[in-house]
Amino acid sequence: MKIAENYSLKKLNTFGIEVKARYFAEIREDEKLINLLDNPAWQTRKMLILAGGSNILFTRDFDGLVIKVSTRGIAIAEETAAHVLVNAQAGENWNGLVNWCVGRNLGGLENLSLIPGNVGAAPVQNIGAYGVEQKDSFECLQALEIATRKQVKFNKADCDFGYRSSIFKKELKNKFVILNVTYRLDKNPVVQINYGELKKEIQSRNIKEPGITEVADAVCRIRNSKLPDPEKTGNAGSFFKNPLVTEEKFLELRKLYPDIPGYPSENRLIKVAAGWMIDRLGWKGFRHGDAGVCETQALVLVNYGNASGYEILGIANDIKKSVKESFDVELEPEVNII
Q1: Most buried by CB count within 10 Å: which residue of 164, 237, 254, 257?
Q2: Reported pTM
Q3: Which residues neighbour 326 within 8 Å (Cβ) at sequence distance 6 or greater?
Q4: Cβ atoms within 10 A of the Cβ of 12, count?
Q5: Total domain count for the chain?
Q6: Domain residues for 132?
Q7: Quick one: 256 exposed, middle or buried, by C-beta within 10 A (0-12, 13-18, 19+)?
Q8: Which residues are catalytic?
Q9: Domain containing residue 306: CATH number
């Protein structure tokens, strides 16, 4: 297997940050990954598993081994009268999987259209959008334990999914490599269009009985109108999570800011719109050199050309500080910072 040295990662992260990996390997077969991990030469070095690079901010070169997972394949694993189990390899493009399912009228993932990244990263982050999370259709996944090189099956309960979170971001962080993921999809889909923006977009087109194709198209139109294309302007989508606060704290905020958006979440917590707070403080459109905040969506930090990860992180920290000072709310990055 070819191991590259001092390898540029600029084209492998959607922020477009120019950093280098001391060593780099691209894996297209699970067996090659096992062989690589079995090699004693790499067992004492720092290691980073890289998927689509759409949820990461590099602030420096990586002095270790970066493994790019590029396995491919989508197949029907099981089928009943009502459902289909679809298995996708970790290196498959996420939106490619969504399109594959929508094209076969298999419902469940259409609200997650156009989310950048690869299939293997979706359960780690428990990606979500427009009222749906990937956990809603998740069946199971296969992962390789780095220490033992054993393959382990994880069912939904094993993954401990939460808001933009899973066990792979907590107790099992950096301990497993996800190999493939299986989703349970509906052959007779019932669309989910209760999310405000999505419902409004569907109604604006005078679509009376939308199917999953119409929902996917509407989601794509919304995302394209609000979010910059990473191919043109470096970004990783939403940089911050929407913070969860107690009902009491939200009522305090509502007294001071009557129009602050909040949505009920689990455990009687309220999800507060981070983008609204950031916008309220005047950050939308802010720019310092080539690092800045998107002009159309305050949650998105951008690289206009040659910004460093350190410069983008500096803006993120300034935003966190100002939100804390003004709202007494802690923002947490959704993006992994290296």
Answers
A1: 237
A2: 0.88
A3: 277, 280, 281
A4: 21
A5: 3
A6: 74-186
A7: exposed
A8: 164, 238, 334
A9: 3.90.78.10
